[in-house]
């Protein structure tokens, strides 16, 4: 090794930024202007992806993202960051497969390490009904170019050496991945800000305005903003905002929790799910086990028993992997997800001209952001939804063309 003198190290250390203080800001902290071409309500992954695609793909840069708290602090910060396309309805499978593929190159596109890591997704079949359901699912998925397979019990045991629970096989999607969820929000924010989008944090939107039969602005804690296009990416709070202009968005709030254990030696490669045992588990690169905790059936933020529900999920995990019984939980948190009656998102222009929905993502919105942002920006810019997004129009509740994914959304 090359010898270095003490003065070299003193000089080197003198140039190291103190407490990261010299790092440049990743996005401009903007004060809201009095009018914009497009205003996006909610600075989560969907609001930011939509803003980025408006500016990048269509040159629409007179855009504000207005966030009541801090950027990416909603469900974007709280999810278990699983990316997959195992869905029942062909429209969902096609949409989420497109998103999975976009995630593969998103880090390069945004020049940001998103830590997309191919892990594989293994959902256990506990009886023949599960197996039959998985078989039907993989056929639907294959019809839209998404790959998955049904594994035999032996093949499952080969992948999960510590598994002790009874099962009759599993659903396997090898290309399923995990992502660094905060980094996705930061990357979109940085790219959108560089393209001229105003990112406004700490400003609450209280209502929308309309003039005649179209949107014309919003009211915020920083005053009024005129705009002819408002995008609702405020999660479950989108419903109340829509109601201020007489729109009904079919969204109900549900609590959903997750937890993380102390780090342990690597024992688990794929993300493992068991609906019967209410368990979802993946191991991070640092060795922690991240647990998705089944949501309660109670509607609303406060009407549930978080510790009771968490205990059920931990019990489920220990039933699957008894050798994990001594591992200690370090932290637990929750988010309030935005669930629609068919558990599929609301994406596109609503019944009121100029008001667009990008919400109702249930427990699966993290994985959807690249496709949803691209699709909604395209609809705003061209007036026409993309083929992938068209089935998710909020107006499907007027026609009855629902995209039923309910069981899936409750189990993730
Ligand atoms: C525990 C848990 C686990 C999950 N696991 C997964 C998973 O593994 N994979 C997956 O794909 N998805 C998962 N999800 C779901 C995923 O996190 C969400 O679907 C996704 O983050 C939705 O992004 P969003 O931008 O729509 O919402 P959010 O990230 O919640 O952003 C909405 C933003 O709007 C802001 N806002 C609300 N009201 C206003 C207002 N009036 N004015 C201004 N701003 C406002 C909020 O502060 C918030 O920052 C999980 C969710 C939870 C809670």
UniProtKB/TrEMBL annotation:
Residues 38-377 form the FAD dependent oxidoreductase domain. Pfam families: DAO. This is Sarcosine oxidase subunit beta. Keywords: Oxidoreductase. One of its GO terms (molecular function) is sarcosine oxidase activity. Signal peptide: none annotated. It is an enzyme of class 1 (oxidoreductase). Its EC number is 1.5.3.1. One of its GO terms (cellular component) is cytoplasm. The lineage of its organism: Bacteria, Pseudomonadati, Pseudomonadota, Alphaproteobacteria, Hyphomicrobiales. The keyword Oxidoreductase applies.
